[in-house]
Specification:
Helix content: over 70%
Subcellular location: Cell membrane
Number of helices: 10
CATH superfamily: Sodium:dicarboxylate symporter
Structural class: mainly alpha
CATH topology: Proton glutamate symport protein
Distance between the termini: 39 Å
Membrane topology: Multi-pass membrane protein
Shape: globular
InterPro entries: Na-dicarboxylate_symporter, Na:dicarbo_symporter_sf
Organism: Fluviispira sanaruensis
Protein name: Sodium:dicarboxylate symporter
Number of strands: 0
CATH architecture: Orthogonal Bundle
Length: 231
Amino acid sequence: MRDSVTLFLNKAFIPILPIFALGFIIKLESDGVLTQILSSYLPLVLAIIITQYVYISLLYFIGAGFNIKQFIYFVKNVLPAGIMGFSSMSSMAALPLTIQAAEKNTGNRDLSRTIAPATVNIHLIGDSLAIPMIALVIMSTFGPGFPDISTFLIFSFYFVLAKFAVAAVPGGGILVMITILETQMGFTPEMSGLITAIYILLDPIITSANVLGNGAFAILTTKLFAKKAAE
């Protein structure tokens, strides 16, 4: 059954998802919204990209023991998976390359083939950084402003729980979160539509960050297991 599902995802379902995303972008352009979003939220886009890749680079540096040569080796191995995530907008589609990169970077075939598939849908660094940042900017622009700490902590709790229900396919991250944003952060339907549009536009970058983050997680987890085994 696993082989049948994998074949369906790789050959039938995943290849048509970029067409769905492209259609959504074309609709935004036809409605005259795309240019306005890009011009208004360019600083937010840059902030998300910088935050994601600085954070992920730090994880790889920690995994490499702050050795520049080892860091470059790790990134070189995982870069094809990141490119696949960017082009397909699906961490699931990039999973085979993520596993290959994890095997090279960790030298542990069994753990790599356990960790990467188990975390591909739930360990989404790109989503976890991007969605709250977009939500806060939209709230400050159209809503009641930044939430207080207690409200944001409750939102974060439900956000993390909902991550276990996310499918790593284009748009999957934000679709699961819309209900939480509306119930916990007071999003209106218009605000939900706006965050969905911004998320779809940034999905290639977000998914690439998800894939690279999963590669870093495999390295750090393998090192942790090795340390525990040595004890």
